[in-house]
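step: validate -> pass
step: tokenize input -> pass
step: predict -> running
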Amino acid sequence: MSGLDLSDLHPDPIHQFGAWFTDATDHVEIALAETACLSTLGPNQTPEGRMVLLKGFDPGGFVFYTNLESNKARALQEHPRAGMTFHWIPVGRQVRLRGPVVRVSDEEADAYFATRPRGSQLGAWASDQSRPLASRQQLEGRVAEVEARYGGGEIPRPPSWSGYRIQPEAMEFWQEGDYRLHDRFVYTRDGEGWSPPQRLFP
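step: predict -> pass
step: emit ->
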């Protein structure tokens, strides 16, 4: 892979992310380009990471959805800051971002929930995410109860299910190089805009 130069990068990191995300989405060996590791601070400020799916991004930030009573949501309520890491191995690229986190609006959450597969909508009602579960049968029974409750009708968004938006303060773009001589550039917030990308040692 050829090296990454400053001239290859867009002045706006959101635009640059969009270009790389499109490359990853179009790559035949990458099944889910939207998969990312979400990092938060858990109990006793212990770092925790788990994989989530990016469900949207724009100049306002990067959005994912979850149960509001899950461990990740509780962590964000206590420490409303997070990091998100994308690693697209087949194209030799990684993007990291970090910043404060805010809840999406109810209207935005409702609109996204309505696009989810029906089975996922049922699961959002049936699952007490991160809580102890006696058996798989118990979970399947709860799904069946929810399905019976709504029949073939529309399934509303559960009150305990919504989304978060990470508002990035810094974004780093990494491209793999031979002999671990990778190319790294970081953008940082500068008022309402962004500083020019700064090259970092690998």
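step: describe -> Helices lie at 13-26, 71-78, 106-113, 118-126, 136-150.
step: cleanup -> pass
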